[in-house]
Design goal:
Elements (H helix, E strand, L loop, with lengths): L7 H10 L3 E4 L8 H11 L4 E4 L9 E3 L5 H7 L6 H15 L5 H15 L4 E2 L8 E4 L20 E3 L3 E5 L6 E4 L3 E3 L4 E3 L7 H11 L5 E7 L3 H6 L10 H9 L4 E4 L6 E3 L4 E15 L2 E2 L5 E2 L2 E13 L5 E3 L9 H19 L3 E5 L9 E6 L6 H9 L10 E6 L7 H11 L2 H4 E7 L12 E8 L21 H10 L7
Parallel strand pairs: 1-2, 3-18, 4-12, 20-21, 21-23
Antiparallel strand pairs: 2-3, 5-17, 6-9, 7-8, 7-11, 10-17, 11-14, 12-13, 14-17, 15-16, 19-20, 22-23
Helix pairs in contact: 4-5, 4-9
Bound molecules: flavin mononucleotide.
């Protein structure tokens, strides 16, 4: 059985006991070689990898920590990620209980207290500050940061937790945004237009703040690492979510040179700041779309201190042509956000963001349709819901369709649509990584209504029934199967 982990080391030990960790003792280089190995391993569902000897560094590299559905679940302390979706559903149900009776009130209150009991806990010291390096001692080039793909502009930190506080409310945000290392003490900050880090920077600029404090955390317990990728709305603390997932509070320690707190059990913390208005060319970078993101202007991160454990382990991931490790990270988001989407859209039965669609290119949703035009309503509602606003293609099918079976989806969609009637074109914000739109960040979107159509949906002919064998014949053939001599 999986459990919560105090830090990355406990998780690595757990994977080793499960036979799901491979140690590579042969010397390797951070320059493309680790990517080629990790890419082959993730694509065949292989183990997490700990590279013990990386040229030019004394620090090992840990990669592919979330790279299968099973390992992703273990990282979050469960056997199957559906267990977490169930827990979220239970929590939402408790919080919605109308306060009619004393018992209902008490249990809703109990659940809120329960949630509050996972609040981050401030401690005064932690192993992430075993060593504190400032001034001339700061040197990002000592860390075995990977150059991932041949046309990459340089070495990129790929699995950081970037922490900022809202300059107005003080509320914390944690996001995973890749960072190009420029030199010993500066790096690019790949904050895309719609992300919360960018929002904090805009607020800082509007208020004339000279420097926005930023902490970049590497490592820690795997649930906390995962929360950086979760699209929580501003104001909802990722560290609280990590506590809820682990069923244990995350210990946070104040930084040494900036006004932020960071997970005490991390491997490394890069403390620093971003100056509003300052940008520098970032990229190209071989991205999770399977294409290079081209060079663009992004903010610059200045390091004021590097703190780390004794003998730190550098955690990394690689992206590239799907399927890569981030697919499993995104699947958790899809599963645990489904109950939340269903609060706004109760007709939604299921949702799938397949690896090929790299999250923002394709969302397949099934609905229990009750009235004409409902599929259109669902598309537009999804385009107004958090980061689903970036979805380029939304396909809506009936609830009887298995959205996870791409063969069934292709069959139903192509059979069920009259393109002139059922394809909806809209426009709106796009992911920075979209390379097809004429201009960055804004462009067109397509909704496909592949649900069954009724007479009020510009269609007078009856809808044909699915071909399904009579149940008594199915039972008869089941009974006689061996007699036919077929295996
Ligand atoms: C491995 C990985 C790398 C990512 N890199 C970036 C990135 O460079 N820039 C970005 O804006 N989002 C990136 N994301 C997506 C964000 O982490 C995700 O949208 C998250 O919700 C952002 O947090 P926020 O909603 O608090 O802004 C990445 C996600 C993963 C899993």
């Amino acid at each position: 059985m999986a459990t919560g982990y105090r830090d990355l080391r406990e998780y690595i030990a757990f994977l080793e006991r499960k036979g799901d960790l491979h140690r590579v003792a042969t010397p390797v280089t951070w320059d493309l070689e680790i990517t080629e190995i990790a890419d082959r391993v993730v694509k065949r569902g292989g183990p997490a990898l700990l590279f013990e000897h990386v040229a030019g560094s004394t620090m090992p590299v840990f990669i592919n920590m979330f790279g299968t559905r099973q390992r992703m679940a273990w990282a979050l302390g469960v056997e199957d990620i559906e267990e977490l979706a169930h827990r979220v559903r239970e929590l939402l149900a408790m919080m919605q209980v109308p306060p009619l009776g004393v018992r209902a009130k008490l249990s809703a209150l109990g659940e809120l207290v329960h949630l509050a009991s996972f609040r981050p806990k401030t401690v005064h010291s932690g192993p992430c500050q075993d060593l504190v390096l400032t001034g001339e001692e700061v040197d990002l080039l000592r860390i075995p940061v990977l150059k991932c793909w041949p046309l990459d502009a340089g070495r990129f930190i790929t699995l950081p937790l970037v922490i900022t506080n809202d300059p107005v409310t003080g509320e914390r945000n944690v996001g995973t945004y890749r960072m190009q290392v420029y030199d010993r003490c500066t790096a690019g900050m790949h904050w895309q237009a719609q992300k919360v880090g960018t929002h904090h920077l805009r607020l800082a600029q509007d208020r004339g703040v000279q420097r926005l404090d930023v902490a970049v955390v590497l490592g820690g317990d795997p649930a906390t690492i995962w929360t950086g990728s979760a699209p929580l709305p501003p104001g909802l603390d990722e560290i609280l979510l990590a506590g809820f997932i682990r069923q244990e509070r995350v210990e946070m320690v104040p930084c040494q040179t900036i006004q932020l707190e960071v997970p005490a059990q991390a491997e490394f913390v890069l403390e620093g700041y971003v100056v509003p208005g300052e940008t520098r060319t970032e990229g190209p970078f071989g991205d999770h779309t399977g294409y290079y993101s081209l060079a663009e202007q992004y903010p610059v991160f200045h390091v004021t201190a590097v703190t780390h454990r004794r003998n730190p382990i550098y955690p990394a991931t690689i992206v590239g042509r799907p399927l890569t490790e981030d697919y499993y990270m995104g699947k958790v988001t899809e599963r645990i956000f489904l109950p939340i989407i269903q609060l706004a859209l109760p007709e939604v039965a299921d949702i799938n963001m397949p690896a090929e669609g790299v999250f923002h290119n394709l969302v397949i949703v099934s609905i229990k349709k009750e009235y004409p035009g409902q599929a259109h309503k669902v598309m537009h509602a999804l385009w107004g819901l958090g980061l689903l606003a970036l979805a380029k293609t939304v396909i809506v099918v009936d609830h009887t369709v298995n959205v996870h079976d791409l063969s069934e989806v292709a069959w139903r969609v192509t059979g069920n649509i009259d393109p002139a009637r059922d394809v909806v074109l809209a426009s709106g914000p796009l992911d920075d990584l979209d390379h097809a739109s004429p201009t960055p960040q804004f462009g067109s979107k397509m909704g496909i209504d592949a649900t069954t159509k009724g007479p009020l949906e510009s269609r007078q002919r009856p809808w044909p029934p699915d071909i399904v064998m009579a149940p008594e014949i199915v039972a008869l053939v089941d009974r006689k199967w061996k007699e036919y001599g077929l295996t």
